[in-house]
């Protein structure tokens, strides 16, 4: 399954990618500002209500010598490639402040704290007016956005006035009726503000996309791509806006021009982030993006970084979390070439991140088409993956092991898989994976270890249909380890899914070799119905005797 960066652009790093959670690495582009400038920016959002009332509707001015469209954020704002980022970051920062104030109003309204309701309404009104005037001074506002601005400002003023009326009465009946009216106006304000911000962001995004499409400068295009990538980290809603404005189309145009080869990796990383939403995948499908990905993956002259990011896009669009599968029809046409390129990338990966991306893509592909499993067997994938597990430079985290064991679990459905696993000493590796433990208190790492244990047990159970595999597993003491995982909650991180998988593997081995399990264990773990054994083990307190 795709890594977290792919499923949820606002989530965690690529290192927390897993087959059970969708999307890949979030590399937040931090603003390059000194401490004084940051203080000056933050100070604007920490003013007192009285000051804000005085400054109401008085925007920060635009310097006379500044280029049209630059939003002044305080002293020292750089021009050129920093302007667009400052515009976007300021817009998002302001939007967050207003949204927070509106959220506080809803809470205080429910509690009937009228003084605070009014003061919050005043603050929200001031912030909204300041945002609108600043943005209008920095950009030519589209007509449809002007309509929302006017309506929003009127509603904010109405909200301020009506909340003030509630300060001068104790009439409960009047306050109750006012509460309902304020709630309705507040809901309208929230909706209008959200629509206006979406339009403003779309306007800024169009500026960035125009830079990508019209510029011949690698530096200018790279800066615009960086700004888009930074935006994708703010959540799926922004990714949807970016996709609808045609960013995926523009980025693939870059990836089809040899003169921009140095930008391929950067562009594809952004595409992968955008494709966490269906709109992004639909845009990719319309421009035959899969063919472009196949070309980059199979081009031996492509640098490893570009091929790794192409793998990231493949992992994203093949994630089982996506409800739409229409794009997979065109994927099947290029599947053989893509699978071949991905397993080669796993074999030659220079670091853990490259291996993680390539193996995550392969893991997702093996879920939706059995032909991919047959192709992988023909390409000696079992040997390549098991050898990679011995190389800490490539497989260095539970997340990478999660991808490997998922591929093995899906390949183990095929009968011809068992002999190859035996030949490559794969049973020994599966037993090592059954002992996977987190090296930190990170919840995501703990979850990845659970998935590794679960899938290792599933793979062992499937392979043990082959008598030779079952015999080898018993000789390597798989049974005691499986029993330990069943009986000791801490060994399996208190995971029920690991328990079920281990019980299934244990019963598979017991069916072929009944003598390998002692009578007491057989009585509790094998003889009862699976659900009864599960309930017994899940309620079992660990014994330290």
From TrEMBL:
> Residue ranges of the Protein inscuteable homologue C-terminal domain?
94-545
Superkingdom of origin: Eukaryota
Q: Where is the composition biased (Low complexity)?
A: 8-31
Q: Which residues form a coiled coil?
A: none
| Ranges where the record places region Disordered | 1-31
GO terms of molecular function: cytoskeletal anchor activity
> What are its GO biological-process terms?
apical protein localization; asymmetric cell division; establishment of mitotic spindle orientation; regulation of asymmetric cell division
Q: Which PANTHER family match?
A: INSCUTEABLE, PROTEIN INSCUTEABLE HOMOLOG
Q: Supply the name of the protein.
A: Protein inscuteable homolog
The taxonomy runs: Eukaryota, Metazoa, Chordata, Craniata, Vertebrata
């Amino acid at each position: 399954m795709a890594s977290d960066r792919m499923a949820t652009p606002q989530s965690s790093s690529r290192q927390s990618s897993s087959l059970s959670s969708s999307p890949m690495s979030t590399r937040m582009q931090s603003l390059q500002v000194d401490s004084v400038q940051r203080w000056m920016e933050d100070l604007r959002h920490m003013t007192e209500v009285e000051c804000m009332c005085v400054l109401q509707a008085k925007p920060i001015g635009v310097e006379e010598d500044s280029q049209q469209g630059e939003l002044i954020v305080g002293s020292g704002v750089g021009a050129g490639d920093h302007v667009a980022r400052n515009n976007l970051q300021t817009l998002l920062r302001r939007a967050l402040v207003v949204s927070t104030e509106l959220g506080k109003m809803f809470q205080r309204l429910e509690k009937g704290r009228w003084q605070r309701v009014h003061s919050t309404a005043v603050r929200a009104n001031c912030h909204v007016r300041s945002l609108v005037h600043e943005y209008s001074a920095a950009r030519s506002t589209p007509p449809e956005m002007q309509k929302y601005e006017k309506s929003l400002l009127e509603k904010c003023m109405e909200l301020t006035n009506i909340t003030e009326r509630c300060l001068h009465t104790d009439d409960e009946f009047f306050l109750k009726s006012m509460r309902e009216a304020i709630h309705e106006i507040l809901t309208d304000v929230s909706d209008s503000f959200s629509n206006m911000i979406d339009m403003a962001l779309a306007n800024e995004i169009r500026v960035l996309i125009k830079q990508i499409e019209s510029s011949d400068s690698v530096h200018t295009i790279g800066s615009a791509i960086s700004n888009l990538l930074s935006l994708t980290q703010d959540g799926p809603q922004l990714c949807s806006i970016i996709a609808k404005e045609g960013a995926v189309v523009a980025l693939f145009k870059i990836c089809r021009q040899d003169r921009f080869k140095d930008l391929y990796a950067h562009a594809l990383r952004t595409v992968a982030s955008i494709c966490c939403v269906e709109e992004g995948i639909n845009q990719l499908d319309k421009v035959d993006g899969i063919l472009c990905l196949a070309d980059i993956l199979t081009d031996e002259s492509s640098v490893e970084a570009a091929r790794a990011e192409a793998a990231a896009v493949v992992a994203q669009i093949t994630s089982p979390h996506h409800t739409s599968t229409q794009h997979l029809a065109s994927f099947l046409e290029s599947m053989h070439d893509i699978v071949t390129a991905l397993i080669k990338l796993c074999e030659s990966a220079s670091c853990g991140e490259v291996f993680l991306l390539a193996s995550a893509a392969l893991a997702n592909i093996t879920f939706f088409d059995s032909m991919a499993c047959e192709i992988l067997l023909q390409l000696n994938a079992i040997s390549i993956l098991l050898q990679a597990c011995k190389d800490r430079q490539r497989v260095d985290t539970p997340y990478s092991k999660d991808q490997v064991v998922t591929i093995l679990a899906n390949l183990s459905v095929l009968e011809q898989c068992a002999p190859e696993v035996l030949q490559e000493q794969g049973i020994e590796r599966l037993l090592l994976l059954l002992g996977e433990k987190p090296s930190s208190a990170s919840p995501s790492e703990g979850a990845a270890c659970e998935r590794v244990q679960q899938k290792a047990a599933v793979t062992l159970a499937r392979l043990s249909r082959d008598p030779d595999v079952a015999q080898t597993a018993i000789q390597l003491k798989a049974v005691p380890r499986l029993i330990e995982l069943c009986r000791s909650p801490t060994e399996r991180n208190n995971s029920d899914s690991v328990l079920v998988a281990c019980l299934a593997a244990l019963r598979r081995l017991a069916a072929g070799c009944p003598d390998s399990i002692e009578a007491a264990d057989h009585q509790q773990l094998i003889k009862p119905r699976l659900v009864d054994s599960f309930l017994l083990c899940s309620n079992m307190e660990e014994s330290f005797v």
